[in-house]
Amino acid sequence: MSRGLRGRLPLAAAAAGLVFHLWAGFSFIKSSSPTYDEPVHLASGYSYLKTGRYALNIMDHPPFSEMLSALPLLFKGPDAFFTHPDYEAGRLYHYSDYFLYRNKFPAGELLDSARTFGFLVWTAGFSAVIFIFCLKLGSAPAGLYALAVYYFLPLFISNNALVTTDSAAALFYCAALLTGFLFALRAYGPEAAFPRRELAAAAVCAGLAMASKFSMFVVPPLVAGLWVLHMVFFSPRREGGRVFFHALLYCVLSLAVLALVYKGDLPLYFEGLNATIERLGQGRPSFSFGVRSMSGVWWYFPAAFLLKNPAALVLFLAAGLIAAFRSRGPALLWLVLPFLFYFGSAFTSRVQIGVRHLLPAMPLAAALAGLGLVFLLRRRRGALLALPAAAVSAFFVVSAHPHYLAYFSEAAGGGRNGWKYFTDSNLDWGQDLKSLGEKLAAEGAPPVVLSYFGVARPEYYGIKYLPLGTVTNVGGLDSVSHAGDLCASSRRLLAVSATNLQGTYYPDQDRFGWLLGREPYFSAGGSIFLYDLAGDADSIERTALLLERSGRPAEAACWRRPGTGQKQ
Fold it and tell me: pLDDT digits over 68-80, tens only?
């Protein structure tokens, strides 16, 4: 590669990546119905901003990320419904559903305004952290390459565009590491300075991380431990008392920031933390590679990492790890160790519902990939390997447009095969009702028997449906019935969410096992499968039996005799 091309390539890659990232993120926002927890986070954050009282979701999540996401709603002024019985009784999902779908503003407008704001904030924040990390630990070209890698990661395109707490926790986790590193460079360098601004910044980032997600309580001790290691391996002097003082002051300031967010009520934070630890210790149903478990499998997150990220990232990350170990510099301490720490901690988790729980480690992976790309491109054979790998992975990422939540890498055969490996927030979080509604509308809006996993309202997207085995926290989604339309229709359409298809949350896990070998005639974003059962007597009968088991014998009778009833 010529020197001139090598000099222009990093900037061109980062610029192209940013353009793609913004286009992909806004397209994903536009195409997606609410995911499972978004209404809860949005309604909770708005209620905190309006009342100043932390009540709705405070035992599951700290308030900062939810409040930040809800900021755009303050300018709109939607109805808050604080006198509604569901709000007063603390029925979180019911109130959130009412807030989103019964407001004076359309549900899509409320949700997408918060999504757009969050997407821009997280994109800017991650870009700054990744670039500065690489600039300090490598070079500007490494930072630009790292940005290009980050911009093409579907995990960030999708999760940054959703109203959740995952992106905030990931950003402040990595920002706390970066500011902690900048503090260590000066505090334990030749001059042995006391950089107050860096210490304050590190404490603010740690406090906001803890105020965004309970799992971030590890940040202050982690950064303090890294300071000790930095002094041992990279400082010209050994001053244990000094680093102890820094660590103590840092932890106190971090708790002070957390206390500010909680308005002085730190016991409320620790009450929520304890409740979350107890809840997570109970486990949760999960599915991976045909295995269903309540306590998880050890290989869940490694497999999800490999299949839910472009293959090129894995290659560049491996090269970055080699480069970091060869250099034996601070990158080992501030990028590799925190990446392995967070990745390794996932092995102990009994809750395995999505690769998004690795999100805090991913910006570090992107930074290491940037270092790895520089390492590869300086070698002829490395360049011959890196450039085709980047092109192939970019092709698969673009091919997923706009359904980036359901993206699976070329190693998995793309998103069409994702349901075979994982369910839940890895690909099916309830986000594709809009796509299903558009398909049905194009065919004249025929009624459909719908087995949905999620909290969005199908009727909002023009779907006439008869619920069957709905998995939801919202009351009413499983009681809506367009039985009259079904009886009058000659079509027999069955739509099943991927999570339900694999029986993840059903006691009878093989409820839809008879569909596993059947090709749907339409896939809504890779997460909801639409089957036309006309002429398939066996499948029609199996569906009718499921309707009867769910307490709908009249509907089952209509289903068995297409077009014989009257529309009601």
Answer: 999 999 999 999 9
Q: What is the pLDDT averaged over residues 383-408?
A: 95
* Cα–Cα distance for residue pair 227/220, rounded to 1 Å: 11
Q: Residue 450's closest CA among 432, 470, 431, 420?
A: 470
Cis geometry, peptide bond prior to residue 402 (ω within 30 degrees of 0) = yes
Burial label for 39, CB within 10 Å (0-12, 13-18, 19+), is buried
3-state class (DSSP) for residue 261: helix
Q: Which amino acid is at 162?
A: L
pLDDT higher than threshold 60 for residue 527: yes
> What one-character DSSP code corresponds to residue 520?
P
**Among the listed ranges 22-36, 132-146, 372-386, which one has the minimum average pLDDT value?**
372-386
The pLDDT assigned to 5 comes to: 57
Q: Are strands 528-532 and 522-524 parallel, antiparallel or unpaired?
A: antiparallel
Cα 340 versus chain centre, distance: 20
Q: For tokens 């590869």, what's the residue?
A: 376
In single-letter form, the type of residue at position 551 comes to G
**Longest C-alpha distance within the chain, in Å?**
88
Contact at 8 Å (CB) between 169 and 212? yes
Evaluate if residue 566 carries a pLDDT over 70.
Answer: no
Q: Which of 361, 31, 22 lies closest to 160, judged by CA?
A: 22
DSSP label at 214?
G
CA distance 76 to 59: 28
In tens, the pLDDT along 446-485 reads: 999 999 999 999 999 999 999 999 999 998 887 777 778 8
Q: Is the predicted pLDDT of residue 564 greater than 60, yes or no?
A: no
Could you give the CA distance from residue 310 to residue 395 in angstroms, rounded to a whole number? 10
Q: How many CB atoms lie within 10 A of CB 325?
A: 12
CB 394 within 8 A of CB 387: no
Per residue in 300-346, pLDDT (tens digit) is 999 999 999 999 999 999 999 999 999 999 999 999 999 999 999 98
DSSP 453: B
Smallest Cα–Cα separation from 511: which of 520, 502, 498? Answer: 502
Position 281: which residue type? G
With H, G, I as helix, E, B as strand and everything else as coil, classify residue 52: coil
Q: What is the mean pLDDT of the chain?
A: 94
Task: Give the HSE-up count for residue 209: Cα atoms under 13 Å, Cβ half-sphere.
Answer: 27
Q: 401: which residues sit within 8 A by CB, 6+ positions away?
A: 24, 27
State if pTM tops 0.85.
yes
User: Across the strands, what pairs with 465?
Assistant: 448
Residue 192, sorted as left (phi over 0), alpha (psi -120 to 50) or beta, turns out to be left
Q: What is the pLDDT of residues 245-279, one digit of tens each?
A: 999 999 999 999 999 999 999 999 999 999 999 99
One-character DSSP codes across 327-352: HTSHHIIIIIHHHHHHHHHGGG-S--
- Residues found in the chain: 568
Pairing of strands 522-524, 465-467: unpaired
Pair 43, 95: CB distance under 8 Å: yes
Crossing angle (nearest 10°) for helices 266-281 and 240-261: 90
The owner of tokens 């707490």 is 165
